[in-house]
Amino acid sequence: MLSRVADSLYWMARYLERAEHTTRLLDANIQLMLEQKPQAVERQLRRINLSLGEPLKLDGKISVPALEHALIFDPRVKTSIISCVMNARENARQVREQISSEMWSELNALYHFVKRYDADDLEQELPLEFLNEVRRNISLFKGETDATMSHGEEWWFLQIGRNIERAANTATMLKVHAAELCGDADIEHLELLALLRSCNAFEAYLKKNTAEFSADNIVEFLLLNPQHPHSILFSVRRLEESISALPEMSSRGERGKVERLAGRLVATLLYSSVEEILSSGLHLSLDNVIRQCAQMHSAIHQAYIDYPIETSLHA
Amino acid sequence: MAQLSSPFEKYELDGAFDEMFDSSGTVRPHYAPLFDMLQESPAGELKRAKQESDLIFLNQGITFTVYGKEEGTERIFPHDLLPRIVTRKEWEHVEAGLTQRITALNLFLQDIYHGGRILNDGVVPRELVYTCKYFRRQMRGLRVPKGVYIAVTGTDLIRDLDGQFMVLEDNLRVPSGVSYMLTGRQVMKRIFPKVFRQSGVMPIEGYPQVLLQSLNALAPDGRDEPTIVLLTPGVFNSAYFEHTFLARQMGIELVEGRDLTVHDNIVYMRTTSGLTRVDVIYRRIDDDFIDPLAFRHDSILGVPGLFNAYRAGNVTLANAIGTGIADDKALYAYVPKIIKYYLGQDAILPNVETYILAEEGPRQYVLDNLEKMVVKAVGESGGYGMLIGPHASKAEIEEFRLKILADPRNYVGQPTLMLSRAPCFVEGEFDSRHVDLRPYILYGDKITIVPGGLTRVALRKGSLVVNSSQGGGSKDTWVVDES
Q1: What's the predicted TM-score (pTM) here?
Q2: Going by DSSP bridges, is the β-strand pair B472-475/B454-458 parallel, antiparallel, or unpaired?
Q3: Given B248, B256, B272, which is nearest A1 (Cβ)?
Q4: Which of B315, B364, B399, B463 is deepest in the core (most CB within 10 A)?
């Protein structure tokens, strides 16, 4: 496969995962904030903002409609739904021949749907229905991806993009709540609920831990649960699996490097306990996850996309 | 005027040669199966067929891009429902004529980039070649595999009033449109299977395979199992659909300039399994943009160092660099002489009479008769930079007069030709439209022409411009065995 194609597939998946993250984040919090006092709303808004990979620069006051507007429509905001969907589609367009027609038509439909929605619609009512439709569309796309595309190298690059993005997003979400989870700050029951909802993990959490919300259980679930697709451990395991499915680069051992990074992160998580993590600093563990995701991104890029010519010749 | 029978009552026959009816209004024999079918099918059925065909084109994303318009740049290529039919006998004549013409033009390219015999002998004026902006000094003395410069040609043919085929222009650089020929045929087979069988249409589906074989034959020496790629300028190019289509049909990689890299005069493509050596590049990028080190330095579409790899004989470019000199619209006037010079034969397919405006006598004649002439810029294609005298306003004519006087070498004049006409299904009725024919000529080990080509239609009534960028459409072209 051409390196450029791999790069586009990887980014297409990452952008869609990011769009989904922003969508869930808004969805979970809009409902929550309806019931909150102004002060709590303000705090929650700042949290939402920090949960984005790249927070907006906010000067002074911040309002619910302004943040909604920025995160849905603003093409200058990199994590807004519109930016992510546009970027995903642009990447798909570059590799139109590599993805299935079904995938393309779902993505195209999503793009046109998002573009049609405008500020007037937002003034009319809460954007919940809109967010739900975006989520549904992304799920359709993922379903078509699994059902209509060969699970070869191309498909694995999509998995890598999706899982790197997802692991980093869940880590960032947890990090924003780290002080509260470590008991250094107060947190309301509703806010914990929004955290779980933002990670698509509310119902699964209840099934495992009942409706009792403890910091330990929440951290354990989002960080170390081996079965929930949005837990960090789950995502990095999928990542490790996807990387082993990639071709070995002309005997340079480049894949080994990437595999080692993924394996190390999996092992670190696998052999930690939640007590240890909380006592030695949740912050540190999460920063470590985020940093290692970034390292894996660079290592993959260097091994498969933008490798120096010399290393690949006369091997 | 002859009265035509249903459903052609409203169909007009006048001066131009009609593909379907002779001057007395009788259906030409090779159109009979189609005519019978049209007579038998109710109008509603054809409308449904038209909708079905449009839908297939839409769903397959068979589009082209129009430049200069910001919104909605991607358009469906308009495809007319009725095929244009040519007899096998006519086709054999065309095939012989094109084979002769392309052989001679290829010899001409070889000659001017080596000894320049034809220039020394004064058959073609030296300054005409050296002032052409498509002449590439860098190609002097460079040997190309098998001496083949033009692996792919699309030559535009028209019919004069007597129905005789003539050459309107050659496209020797990066001719496009063949994907519409191939997809148009697939659609027609689904829509008119019965007429198709009755007519005995010669197949064209082998085109991608023959193209691949031709490219294979042109691989550098010693590269027995060459890696062949198609080089596209990218998604914003007007013919991007065609690039993806052909790459897929041939089973070769579709690459952009940024996928290729040159090291020690060898071209590689960057893949996730490492660098892969590339031997033959079917390039759909113009000379100017192919290598910023050798040609336009501001090009970001090309591959730095590609030309040196080409000079070193490590990679084949198809078509070769510098072929544009042989489809210069002024040089066109000399093609019959070029055929005579290299092959000792008279041209089988005649040229359209052409006035070289760099010469004073012809220039004066053209300037005096601008309202009757077609004037073309020599280096333009796609119907851009063209004056059609009878359809132009006074102001446009005066504007062209000044342009010609400012740079006479840049223009040629031709009499306005009545292109032949063929019936089209327009808004539920049959109406006649002007058409031309672009067969595709492949040159590898030998010359191969798939029977037929792209019939282009000027969809606006009375218009003579068939280019897709100027509101043209296409028709499937059937070469039929009349036996």
Answers
A1: 0.86
A2: antiparallel
A3: B272
A4: B315
